[in-house]
Amino acid sequence: MSTKDTQFQVWEVFIQTKPGLPYKHAGNVHASDKEMALQNARDLYTRRNEGTSIWVVPSNAIVASNPNDSEMLFDPANDKVYRHPTFYIMPEGSKHI
Amino acid sequence: MDNVIDLEKQFQEKIDRDQSIEARDWMPDDYRKHLVRQISQHAHSEIIGMQPEGNWLSRAPGLRAKLILLAKIQDEAGHGLYLYSAAETLGVSREEMLDALRTGKAKYSSIFNYPTLTWADMGAVGWLVDGAAIVNQVALQRTSYGPYARAMVRICKEESFHQRQGYEIMAHLAKGTTEQKEMAQDALNRWWWPSIMMFGPHDADSPNTGNAVKWKIKRESNDTLRQRFIDKTIHQADIIGLTIPDKDLKWDETTKHYKYGEINWEEFNNVVKGNGPCNKQRLEQYNKAFEEGAWVREAAEAYAVKKAKKQQQEIAA
């Protein structure tokens, strides 16, 4: 009996549901190389026409922000209401572009 | 220590606000452990669940039935993989989980330790076992751990085809010859009680649920989910003219639910402990497939190493 087990590297899978739409994270697959990763992603995540295009990325290539930093990273945007069009007062009767 | 108490408080506040917990968020060790156990058991159930169905693949009555069964089994494999992925986000490796299944350390749903004796069992499994699974999984779509909840959403979308294909088989047999109808009734008789046991012990006897409820891993109780399944399924049985094998079944006008008979928990515990009709066979079959596939994994890895080396040489040249 072979005791050595390998389930290969983990790849994150992103799927574009229709041309023109952004790629969305679908989940991950295990694969020994990029071809197998793409094949496995296709078999696992697009059995019902969920996509027209797939990206696979080695999980360890992804850099993620730390949840503890979320205040530092994202709060500064809170007080910048002037970045939203609703901040501005349009003259009476003027139309939107 | 103050710090941990703070973190736990923040964690619980997040849960109370119905905010989902994500992989990199701080979580109590017991929350992580509970989820690893639950999600990996759930994954193992999907994987082992392929076996009772695979049993009928080469004997499916007709090409349509065979194609559908094949697609369904492929879905079960997919569901297992979605769930292993979700569990991996908690820091447990795929190798560890598969090892636990292989060596019998990990549990999977006891329902898959019952044999599938006739083609009608393919109907009963889809109708009852997948039906019960759907009721359970719909509730889990709102579970507090994000990756688990998202896996559940995907699984629920796919699972309803399973339940319908099973019900279709039962409906078809129930309309057939006397023998066919008897075969359908026999499958219902054998699968009914194990199916309603799938929801686990009665709420009063379920010691594990305290934290799971507090942490919103579990959103509805075993008995609530079981009752929902029973109410819906009785109606479906009526429509196709089959009889639920429970003489105590009675509509209760005050609760607006069906009352049902005593569940045989001795049988349940016995199968959980490993003494069901097929526990041994399921595990042996899994190990056989695992061992027979080992050379494929080894070859794929060797090929990947070789290719990477070649690529490096090309870059160097």
What is the element layout, followed by pairings?
The complex is a heterodimer of chains A (97) and B (317).
Chain A: E1 9-16, E2 24-31, H1 34-45, E3 53-58, H2 70-74
Antiparallel strand pairs in A: 1-2, 1-3
Chain B: H1 2-16, H2 29-48, H3 50-54, H4 63-88, H5 94-102, H6 120-140, H7 146-174, H8 178-197, H9 209-214, H10 222-239, E1 250-252, E2 257-259, H11 265-275, H12 279-292, H13 294-316
Antiparallel strand pairs in B: 1-2
Characterize the structure shown.
The complex is a heterodimer of chains A (97) and B (317). Chain A is α+β, with helices and mostly antiparallel strands and 97 residues long. Chain A has helices at 34-45, 70-74; strands at 9-16, 24-31, 53-58. Chain A has a three-stranded antiparallel beta sheet with strand order 2-1-3, covered by helices on one side. Chain B is globular and about 75 Å long. Helices cover 68% and strands 2% of the residues of chain B. Classes of the chains: A alpha+beta (97), B mainly alpha (317). Chains A and B meet through strand 2 of A and helix 4, helix 5, helix 7 and helix 13 of B.
In a nutshell, what does this entry contain?
With 97 residues, chain A is an alpha+beta fold. In chain A, 18% of the residues lie in helices and 23% in strands.
Oligomer: heterodimer
Radius of gyration of chain A: 22 Å
- Kindly estimate the percentage of residues of chain A that lie in beta strands according to DSSP: 15-25%
Order of helices and strands of chain B: HHHHHHHHHHEEHHH
Strand residue content of chain B: under 5%
Distance between the termini of chain B: 57 Å
Helices and strands of chain A: which structural class? alpha+beta
**Spatial extent as radius of gyration of chain B:** 22 Å
Name the helicity range of chain A: 10-25%
Order of helices and strands of chain A: EEHEH
Strand order of the largest sheet of chain B: 1-2
Strand arrangement within the widest β-sheet of chain A reads: 2-1-3
